[in-house]
Amino acid sequence: MNSTGHLPLSDSAVRPLGKAKRGRPRKSAAIVPAAAPVVREQAAVGTLTRTKSLLLAALKVWELKQRGMG
Fold first, then answer.
1. Where do the segments described as Disordered lie (predicted)?
2. 5: left (phi over 0), alpha (psi -120 to 50) or beta
């Protein structure tokens, strides 16, 4: 026994450490690259088209919050 109260380890008793294992890559990242968001030209302020697009965007946000994703 040594001064710490433990038995000394011999070289044959110590197990060699293997290589560190890497995590499995995600399938979605490997197969399907991230889709680029569609860039649209903004409608003029005060137009019905702009109001409709803002309402649709707000509806999408609300739906995602209701699902628990936001």
1. 1-29
2. left
Q: How far apart are CA 37 and CA 60, in angstroms?
A: 15
* Residue 19, phi then psi, degrees to nearest 5: -70, 150
Q: Does some domain include residue 49?
A: yes
Cβ pair 50, 42 in contact under 8 A: yes
Q: What is the pLDDT of residue 55?
A: 96
pTM: 0.39
Report the chain's mean pLDDT, rounded to a whole number: 76
In a domain, 61, yes or no: yes
**Domain contains 57:** yes
